[in-house]
Task: inverse folding
């Protein structure tokens, strides 16, 4: 059903966090998993949970079509109603870019 491939993209500018983001599968049908391979920083929290990351998906016109916060280093994103085509994904944490890349949706 899916062409199971992945796209990895390093943190922009070689961030000190050493972060990397992977989108699996890519291309996909509007459902994919984001794996953030970065240190789990407590960000001043006493409960030991990882700091949140923000996932933003843009269409080719630069319009935001998805914006959500994630806490897990591996999260499934389901976006129904997306048209077939290329989208751009940006993952940030604490205002700093963790990674940016392309996501291809095939219907």
Result:
């Amino acid at each position: 059903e899916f062409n199971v491939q992945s796209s990895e993209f390093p943190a922009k500018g070689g961030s000190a966090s050493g972060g990397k983001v992977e989108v699996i599968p890519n291309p996909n049908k509007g459902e994919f998993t984001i794996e953030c391979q970065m240190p789990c920083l407590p960000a001043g929290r006493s409960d030991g949970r990882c700091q949140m990351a923000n996932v933003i998906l843009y269409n080719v016109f630069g319009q935001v079509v998805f914006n959500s916060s994630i806490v897990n280093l591996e999260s499934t994103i389901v976006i129904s109603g997306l048209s077939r085509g290329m989208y751009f994904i940006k993952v940030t944490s604490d205002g700093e870019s963790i990674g940016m890349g392309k996501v291809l949706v095939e219907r």
Summary: The two ends are 11 Å apart (CA to CA). Confidence is low (pLDDT under 50) at residues 1-6, 10-18. The beta strands are 7-10, 20-24, 31-36, 53-58, 64-70, 74-78, 85-93, 96-105.
